[in-house]
Amino acid sequence: MQSILSHFHYTDPGILEQERSKIFRQLWLFACLSSTLAAPNAYASLSLAGQPVLIQNCNGEIRAFKNQCPHRLVPLQAEGFGQSPMRCPYHGWTFNNDGSVKSIPHESNLYNFSSEEREKLCMKRYAVEIVGNMIFINLSENPLPIEKQFTPEILDKLRDISTHFSAQTAHITVEVDYNWKLQYENVLDYNHVPYVHPQSFLPLLTKDNSSNLTKKKIEQPSIPFFPDVPSTLNAQSYHTRAALKIPPQPWHSMVDRYGEGGFFENFFLFPNVNFNCAEGMVFKIEQYEPLTPSRTAVRFTMAVAKEKQRIRALPAILSGCIRNDVNVLHEDRMYLERLQKGLHAGSPKVHHGQYERYLISFAQVYEKLLKGERPW
């Protein structure tokens, strides 16, 4: 069948603004791991739906704000991660844990705010849900219950698996020149793996871990055939599992593996997260933040399973893991950037095969949300 989406869903600036308004600013979005904010005044700052967001440890409670000082709109925290009180670096304003103004240097001489004006000088606050070790933020004034977006089964699974992460994590952001939906559709599509990743990812799905596969030797991996997927919001976030074998490394015996191992577990979290676990030892969260209709920031968060003993080489291990996943992204990138460049007013709609049920359902729910419908 043909997709209900057309070229302009991937190229039109007006569509991007609708996505931000009707999808990203209405749904729960993954922000960061709570383990990265364990220390007092620890923070994370990032862009969500085009909005600057600050997540801060406020006296042991995780809170989220718009990362803008109400005075001149300068970000309070400029780095991705750090540890400092909420203080504007531009004019020295400081803020309480609820986002209200705590102090303004030389306030009476320089500003002369009335009590009513001063009370309004408050940072905008956002709703927070912590699921295990994962922090989700909702930018809406009236956020929907997170259970409307994710099923209880998915939430329970996320709570369980995310508590197995090591305390130390690695982060990197890669910007690519194509629409965010192309990347999300790509990770929903298992069928491209033998053709795009024959040397990187495919060998891990084979019995012998052969590293010298050529395209002539490629065997089709087992592709799950999904039944019709309901076009409801919570049906878009789901879990899959496939056999996987990582070549053994010395550090594997030094971590507390999640589950029984031997599997690659994927969590597709609508609208823009692919979270996976390799053999219960390596965890990656990949998130797609739209920058323009044809440019996307891909954010990686990488962890290994909790250490049973100190691993001195853990920074190097995390660096190697994240480098491998970035390499896989670059393999996809070559094709997706070509695809994006070829989209134009005369581009035909794509054709979906039977196995692409989740891509079809994704498009249906996406379109409902753009129309302002409530598919839950």
From TrEMBL:
It comes from the Bacteria. Gene3D superfamilies: Naphthalene 1,2-dioxygenase Alpha Subunit, Chain A, domain 1 (3.90.380.10), Rieske [2Fe-2S] iron-sulphur domain (2.102.10.10). One of its GO terms (molecular function) is dioxygenase activity. Its cofactor is Fe cation. InterPro entries: Rieske_2Fe-2S, Rieske_2Fe-2S_sf, Ring_hydroxy_dOase_asu_C_dom, Rng_hydr_dOase-A. Keywords: 2Fe-2S, Dioxygenase, Iron, Iron-sulfur, Metal-binding, Oxidoreductase. Belongs to the bacterial ring-hydroxylating dioxygenase alpha subunit family. This is Aromatic ring-hydroxylating dioxygenase subunit alpha. It comes from Comamonas avium.
